[in-house]
Amino acid sequence: MQNHTRLFIFLFSSLLFSQQPSNSNFQRNASINFKVFGIVSDSETGEPLEYATIAIKSKNNPEKIFGGLTDENGKFSVDVNPGLYELKIDYISFISYSNEDLMIRGNTDIGNIPLVLDVSMLDEVEVRAERTQVEIRLDRKIYNVGQDITVKGGNVSDVLANIPSIDVDFDGNISLRGNNNVRILINGKPSGLVGLSGPQGLRSLPSESIEKVEVVTSPSARYSAEGTAGILNIILKKQSLLGFNGNFNLNLGIPRNEGLNGTLNVRNEKVNLFSTVNLSNSENSGSYFSETNYTRQDLTIDEANDWDYNNKNIFFNLGSEYYFDDKTSLTLSGFYKKGDDSSYATNIVNDISEGIISSTNKRLRDETEMDESFEYALDFYKDYDRDGQTLSARISYEESEDDELEDIEDFASFPLISESIFEKVSNIDFQKRLLRTS
User: Fold this and answer.
1) How far apart are alpha carbons 260 and 398 in whole angstroms?
2) N or C: which terminus of the chain has fewer CB atoms within 10 Å of its end residue's CB?
């Protein structure tokens, strides 16, 4: 009986130890990572697709999902554990790619995955209302301004500030992905709307006159070398409805922001007349205070800033378009804009040492700027409706003037120094004269 008991214990122990390797393998697999990499491209053009979504889902554990996005070259690389997975690749307006039996036993190169454009999805799109939306194309991203209430009563700077990857500072300077070397076009062409002052001149262009903004980060050969960061193409509204139509908007805001803008359009089968007008007046004021302490030197620097800013703008656009047929047109257009800006700022800096103001520096800045420009243009356009071939020609004349006056006054003051000198002198003299006689 004792021998049987020992045999049972031996067999049971063997079974327990035989289970250990499988659990160890599971833990080892969970700690091992292999790379799944490849390229996603357009099946028609072969161009890489940026920001395509990569999802790798475990077949044994549906809750375990690995993923990532393609870069600007269409490449992706995802770290996964060994096992059986389902691979899915999605991209806007393209048919999704799926591989339901992807076995990962090591680093796996998926290769080039060409995605096919979903034409049926595009045909079914129906726009029922004007709204802000994004269109992603191979060479650009298009941001439709629509009826975005966040930019109502604003200008083009407010519109651009709402677009990802674009930054607009307080002075109206525009940068794309951190680079301010941006080329700005109006309706696909250089324009006097930009003005002599550069992007700052766009502040007089109302947001209601903008239909969409195209962001081109990889310009083709048709563009000049100017604008290494990219190109911003601002497309202005041009009504195309038959008959007589238009709209007017009145904007009031706090702090003071007044604006009146409107569009008018008259069109028949052959001729389209369009016009846009905008009047705006805005005021803004602000202040800030800062204090810097230097403990080792027992020094404190207080700085106070106050400013007032006023901006007045007039913008007027008028044009006529003649249609030879559905694919050929000739457009004569012109615009006039005038901006009047003024600002007044005060800067006071106090140096405080040991609790006493040792010096005060005060700067007063009074700045006025007036920019005025107009442009006339004649544009011809023809669409050949084959392989995207188009012909466009433009003749334009523009004139701009920008006057800026800045008056800066600096003042420095120091406290009166009071010094008292007290001197006390005490003196004792003792003198004795000795006479010797013989």
Assistant:
1) 26
2) C
What is the pTM for the complete model shown? 0.45
How many CB atoms are closer than 10 A to CB 56?
A: 22
Per residue in 330-342, pLDDT tens? 989 888 988 888 9
| Token reading at 18 | 């035989």
Phi, psi of 115 (to 5 degrees): -100, 145
Instruction: List, in order, residues 6 or more apart from 39 with CB less than 8 Å away.
Output: 48, 70, 73, 74, 75, 76, 111, 112, 113
| Cross-strand partners of 45 | none
Please, what's the b/e burial string for 10-45 (b: 16 or more CB within 10 A of its CB; e: otherwise)?
eeeeeeeeeeeeeeeeeeeeeeeebebbbbbbbeee
pLDDT (tens digit per residue) in 253-307? 888 888 887 878 788 888 888 888 888 888 888 898 998 988 877 888 999 999 9
pLDDT tens digit sequence for 158-202: 778 777 778 887 666 788 877 777 877 777 766 655 544 455 556
Report the chain's terminal Cα–Cα distance, integer Å: 152
Find out whether 315 and 209 touch, Cβ atoms under 8 Å: yes
Q: How far apart are CA 234 and CA 220, in angstroms?
A: 17
What CATH number has the domain spanning 21-115? 2.60.40.10
* Delimiting residues of CATH 2.170.130.10 domain(s) in the chain: 133-236
For residues 151 and 168, is the Cβ–Cβ distance under 8 A?
A: no
Class of domain 133-236: mainly beta
Nearest to 94 by CA among 138, 144, 133: 138
Q: Which residue has the tokens 């802000």?
A: 132
